[in-house]
Specification:
mainly alpha, 0% strand, globular
Amino acid sequence: DQHLSSGNDHIQGARAMINIALNQHKQSALTGLNLARLKFLANAWVYLDVLSRVTTADEDTSDDYDNLYCLYSTPESPQIGPSGHPGFGIDFGLPIDSTLDPLMGCASTLFPLIGRTANLIRRVYRAESNSPPMISQAMELKLMLETWEPPAFVEPPEDPTCDVRHALQTAEAYRWATLLYLHQALPEIPERLTTADMAKKVLVFLATVPLASRCVIIHVYPLFMAGCEADVEEDRQWIKSRWAAMSQRMRIGIIDKCVDVMEEVWRRRDEYKNKVLPSKVVPVRRNMVSTADLQSSGGNNRPAANRRGSSFNSIAGASEGTMAWANKLRRMTVGDPDKMDSASISCRGSRDAVNGATGTLLTVRGRLHWIGVMKDWGWEVLLG
């Protein structure tokens, strides 16, 4: 393929059609099956519009989904369902209940934040440097992403292959994948975790969802975002096996394209690490010290499980028993101050994960990022 498009033109056209349908519904309210169809189409458009913004290169930075649901918001929503719990989701002026959306699951209200993040990152990509207004907006988005919470109640779906817990895990994977993407674009943002740490969190959340679950069909976005950051062979093999299982189930070409881009990212980073970095190493001259003067300080004997380069499986093991519900999972997002040194908290945001220096190679402007690969290949792969 010489060019792969995310289909953004078609999605923008669909926006106009849905806008017309919502106007007609406002004038003459739909009911029953027709209302359910309109709600599904509106939510499906949000899902596709947001994910297309992640990889498209055009200059459209409009928040169409924001305009749409704010325009049609009504005071009657959200509704209180038969269970007595409030509904959740984007308010298009349509009834809002507490059922899982087929595409967005329980993360409907998270998708506008993902869309705003994608819009900002497209501005970053086209700019020569990150301006103070960009960094300020990124900090606001970071706070909103960190404080976003899934709904308190979700009605159990009729589909036996779709568990509420799987939807909650998937929502957290989307949230952390977006935080990862934001940090890659604006490394000036203070962050307790490295991009590798955030990617591992995404992989852990995905790993807790069995392949038999229906939620797996919407794991393209988080698996791609986190998969490109994997540098441990064990993790890479697990990621490839996950892609293979998804491809066999979904039978769509997007999976193959995601794998192609991801493996090219791995190849470029491995080549850079093995060929470029060794040539940049400068020997450090050290003074001779008598071995009799050496004493064991005991300060550097951290267990291997706490080292940053360990497989994500060690993190999964460390968080055993906390992966079932979103309120317990959120404890993982804060980080353990006792296991972090203060210097890393203040400086880690702008560190290059490969060579330890500030730079752009691993940011969205660099050729070692998946955006750089897609740019070189002329691809825009829809991650959904």
